[in-house]
Amino acid sequence: GTSFELTFTTVAPLIALMESLEVEQLRYCLAVLAATHDPAAEPTIASYAGHADERVRSEAREALIELAGRR
Predict the structure, then answer these.
(1) 41, 34 contact by CB (below 8 A)
(2) Contacts of 34 (CB under 8 A, 6+ apart)
(3) Residue 42 contacts by C-beta under 8 Å, 6 or more apart in sequence?
(4) Do 51 and 18 touch, CB atoms closer than 8 A?
(5) How far apart are CA 24 and CA 4, in angstroms?
(6) Hey, how many other C-beta atoms are within 10 angstroms of the C-beta on 17?
(7) Is the pLDDT of residue 2 over 90?
(8) According to the 3-state scheme, what is the secondary structure of 2-52?
(9) How far apart are CA 37 and CA 23, in angstroms?
(10) Which secondary-structure segment (H or E) carries 62?
(11) Whether the predicted pLDDT of 55 surpasses 80
């Protein structure tokens, strides 16, 4: 199979779109940012920890744990 590494630079353009996304899309974006394991993703992920939707808050918490665990 194909193997690739997600880099923050590759997925950073998503950040500009995140405010306009639906909850499920937003959750995927948070997971993708966490998968980069790049500390540069932390401010964006953390900014969703206070989101109005619990599912987004939960995904943000999980994403921050993932990000911190792989540095």
Answers:
(1) yes
(2) 41, 45, 62, 63, 64, 66, 67
(3) 64, 67
(4) no
(5) 24
(6) 11
(7) no
(8) CCCCCCHHHHHHHHHHHHHCCHHHHHHHHHHHHHCCCHHHHHHHHHCCCCC
(9) 22
(10) helix 54-69
(11) yes
